[in-house]
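Why does residue order matter? Because the sequence determines the fold. Keep that principle in mind as you read this record.
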Amino acid sequence: LVPDLKEGAGGAVGGPPCLKGSVVFVAVNENNKGVPINPLVPATDEERTNFEAGARMNKQRKEARNISLKHHAPKEDEIARLHAMMVHPPPAGSLHAALADTALDSVLVMQPQVTSPWTQSSSCS
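Structure:
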């Protein structure tokens, strides 16, 4: 999920920030390795729009790997910004919220290739 700070809930610009999410399905073989499938062919304008948006998000996700903290240490200015965010509240009128000012209603985290709450299986077979 990534925060969309330009558009508020219900699409109102300037409203409260909202989160957008996407789900990626990957076909896997018996060794849990990705396998090609028949390509999706969008038929309507809405499907084409969503398909193009998905392609853009996929490109952005792949580009983000190049700057991921998993692979590269943060730069000095990034360290300073992260520290400031943790110790100082966001400025008034900011679209940012302190973690302490948020509440979690519910969450369900699943990785079906590892486990599923609905089956006792430990793989996608």
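The longest strand covers residues 2-8.
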